[in-house]
């Protein structure tokens, strides 16, 4: 099985483009990925957009907006879980 760390080898628009290919198969998603980054500046802000704002981007339909929103929900849940299970330090003696 080939394991690739995509974050190290792909540009931001290429990461978004790859994600979009799962929601919009058999379509060149590069223009849509670049439009998302042009409008929202970073991957973080692309994933933070509400459903309605995503629909304003050419090439983003209801299914794709739902898909991007689902990715954000998964990331949020994963981060919440990480924070909940993190050891806390309440004083200098807790090193």
3D structure, described in words:
It is elongated and about 55 Å long. It has helices at residues 6-9, 12-23, 30-40, 43-48, 51-54, 62-84. It starts with 5 loop residues before the first helix and ends in an 11-residue tail after the last helix. The mean pLDDT is 88. The longest helix has 23 residues, at 62-84. It is mostly helical. Helix 2 (12-23) packs across helix 3.
Descriptive labels:
DNA polymerase, domain 1, elongated, mainly alpha, 95 residues
Structure, briefly:
The protein is an all-alpha fold and 95 residues long. The chain has helices spanning 6-9, 12-23, 30-40, 43-48, 51-54, 62-84.
SSE blueprint and pairings:
Elements: H1 6-9, H2 12-23, H3 30-40, H4 43-48, H5 51-54, H6 62-84
Helix pairs in contact: 2-3
Which regions have little confidence, pLDDT < 50, spanning 5+ residues? none
State mean pLDDT (0 to 100 scale).
88
What value does the Rg take, in angstroms? 17 Å
Taken together, the total number of domains comes to 1
So how many helices?
Answer: 6
Distance between the termini: 40 Å
Number of strands: 0
Proportion of residues in helical segments: 55-70%
Q: What is the CATH fold-level name?
A: DNA polymerase, domain 1
Going by CATH, what is the homologous superfamily?
A: 5' to 3' exonuclease, C-terminal subdomain
Shape assignment: elongated
Strand content: under 5%
Q: How are helices and strands ordered from N to C?
A: HHHHHH
């Amino acid at each position: 099985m080939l394991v690739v760390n995509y974050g190290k080898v792909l540009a931001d628009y290429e990461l978004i483009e790859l994600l979009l290919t799962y929601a919009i198969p058999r379509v060149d998603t590069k223009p849509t990925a670049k439009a998302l980054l042009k409008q929202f500046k970073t991957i973080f802000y692309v994933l933070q957009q509400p459903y309605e704002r995503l629909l304003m981007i050419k090439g983003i339909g209801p299914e794709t907006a739902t898909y991007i929103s689902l990715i954000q929900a998964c990331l949020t849940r994963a981060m919440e879980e990480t924070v909940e299970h993190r050891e806390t330090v309440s004083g200098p003696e807790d090193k």
